[in-house]
Amino acid sequence: MECISPQELARTMLRRGDILQAVAAEVRDKTKPGDKVLDPFCGSGVLLAVASRLKRQVRGCDIGPEMVDFASKLIARHGGQEGDIQVGDATSLSMPTSSFNFVITSIPGWNTVKYSNAREALEAKSQQDYWLQMRQAIGEMRRVLKPGGSCMFVQSQETAARMATLAREADLPTNFVMVPGAR
């Protein structure tokens, strides 16, 4: 599987103005300026740039160092303020419990795109293994979310349906923005 570049991932997301408008509306609705927003699968940083532009404190992590570097630059350039973006694993977040008002993310799809050459990249051996890792990541999102906080997933309909089940199991307050045509 060929690795997608951070630039291509960002271009793909930025072409979808309808999705970015929905993300901005949800960030405005669920948070206020100064609130802390996390993206544990930040990729190119586009979702955090939207939150940063709305004056939210943003923090993200990604398993790919090249994505972290690109996301940091994108947020600083287009978000209006610096973000705290680090190399990290969404299944084992290095953040304190109850520290974020809002979690926003677009999880990588099962076996659809490889976006990191990092040795530690999320490499599910099977679809079952992938969903076990996503269950761990959802548990971590729930752990770092403050009481009263919520989570938003930007996903394909197929992935969103499965994520909704995992979110309910973890008692994670969740909203979804569907990405038509995405896998």
Q: Helical content, roughly?
A: 40-55%
Number of strands: 6
CATH topology label: Rossmann fold
CATH class: Alpha Beta
- Known CATH architecture: 3-Layer(aba) Sandwich
Low-confidence stretches: 112-121
Q: How many domains make up the coordinates?
A: 1
Number of helices: 6
Determine the mean pLDDT: 81
Q: What name goes with the CATH superfamily?
A: Vaccinia Virus protein VP39
Shape: globular
String of helices and strands = HHEHEHEEHEHE
- First-residue to last-residue Cα separation: 16 Å
How would you sum up this structure, described in words?
- By secondary structure, the chain is α/β, with parallel strands linked by helices.
- It has one domain (6-178): Vaccinia Virus protein VP39 (Rossmann fold, 3-Layer(aba) Sandwich).
- 42% of the residues lie in helices and 20% in strands.
- The protein is built from 6 helices and 6 strands; from the N terminus they run ααβαβαββαβαβ.
- It has helices spanning 6-14, 17-30, 46-53, 65-79, 127-144, 157-169, and strands at residues 36-39, 57-62, 84-87, 100-105, 145-155, 174-178.
- A 6-stranded parallel β-sheet has the order 3-2-1-4-5-6, with helices on both faces.
- α3 (46-53) packs parallel to α4.
- The radius of gyration is 15 Å and the shape is globular.
- The two termini are 16 Å apart.
- 43% of the residues are buried.
